[in-house]
Write a structure and sequence with these properties.
By secondary structure, the protein is an alpha/beta fold. Helix 9 packs antiparallel against helix 10. Helices cover about 50% and strands about 15% of the residues. The chain folds into two domains: about 230 residues, Spore Coat Polysaccharide Biosynthesis Protein SpsA, Chain A (Alpha-Beta Complex); about 70 residues. The chain contains ten helices and eight strands. The model has no long low-confidence stretch (mean pLDDT about 80).
Length: about 325
């Protein structure tokens, strides 16, 4: 009996150094799984070129020419970001694939874990998360910031899986449900857990990047975290409201204190305390306006309903 049709979705941005090795390893994995009837011989590997500035697309074209039965390519009209490129690939394969596996092109995700993911899918899981078992190979700074990232984003109301990036299996049902989410501000790590299907976890050790440079330096990771928080949770706005209430209560207490001091005859004005109060309250006001403005900006983008990606070319069906 033939197995399910699997689509492996790989977003690419300037991956010319690592793409040939990635394609070869994925090709070997797909052939092995198809030969043992774990997956169908109709399974595909789909590369999405997210507006690369190098010759990544030319490499994808060559792969599709050499093996059009397995390799497919999608070229976006411009760079739209990793999340949009990934969504493009997932929505493109849901029509023909029974399940999809998304992974990065840098070979840091362990390809051998695909077997376990498929086993969990066969046992009834519609979503299987690839989760890092440990971070021994990361620097101390990277481990600390990653830990803070997951803890902080969950604290602020975004329900994401600890130590999980975008290495996951999703069934056709899960992909169809994902297609119902129309927001422009994408944070798939937070959206996928909202789908509510039966899930499983496949643990793996993340490898060193084979070639090229990381697409997520510290600055971009911070922006990504902020995007996730403001896309999925209104808790920061509630925290601003609570902060306002606390400051109001403190101001009432200070009024009472000032009146008491007046009747006690101690009415000296303290310039340092006044200046500190002005600066602190002014800073909190600006911070609050900034947070609220971030949400208003997202509302503005959502109401425009601009396309999240535009496909320029498709190869390989």
């Amino acid at each position: 009996m033939a197995g399910p049709i699997l689509a492996i979705v790989v977003p690419c941005y300037n991956e010319k150094d690592v793409l040939p090795a990635t394609a070869q390893q994925l090709l070997e994995a797909v052939k092995r799984l198809a030969k043992s009837s774990v997956i169908s011989h109709e399974s595909k590997i789909v590369f999405i070129d997210d507006g690369s500035k190098d010759n990544t697309w030319e490499l994808i074209e060559n792969l599709c020419k050499k093996n059009p039965k397995i390799f497919s390519g999608i070229k976006l009209s411009k760079n739209r970001g990793h999340q949009n490129a990934l969504l493009c690939g997932l929505l493109s394969v849901r029509e023909f694939a029974d399940a999809s596996i998304s992974m990065d092109a840098d070979l840091q995700d362990d390809i051998s874990v695909i077997d376990e993911m498929l086993n969990l899918y066969g046992s009834g899981c519609d979503i299987v998360y690839g989760v890092r078992s440990k971070r021994d190979k990361d620097s101390l700074f990277k481990r600390i910031t990653a830990h803070l990232f997951y803890r902080f984003i969950n604290f602020l109301g975004a329900d994401i899986i600890y130590n999980h990036a975008d290495f996951r299996l999703m069934s056709k049902n899960a992909l169809n449900a994902l297609a119902e989410y129309k927001e422009v501000n994408l944070f798939l790590r937070g959206i996928v857990p909202m789908l509510g299907y039966r899930t499983g976890i496949a643990y793996y050790e993340r490898k060193e990047r084979m070639a090229g440079e990381s697409k997520y330096p510290v600055g971009k990771m911070l922006r990504f975290a902020f995007e996730g928080i403001t896309s999925l949770s209104t808790k920061p706005i509630r925290m601003v409201t609570i902060l306002g209430v606390i400051i109001f209560i403190i101001s009432l207490a200070m009024i009472v204190y000032s009146v008491v001091r007046y009747f006690m005859g101690a009415t000296e004005t303290g310039w340092p305390s006044m200046i500190c109060s002005i600066w602190s309250i002014g800073g909190l006001i600006l911070l609050s306006i900034g947070i609220v403005g971030e949400y208003i900006g997202k509302i503005y983008l959502e109401t425009k309903q601009r396309p999240r990606f535009i496909v320029e070319k498709k190869l390989g069906g």
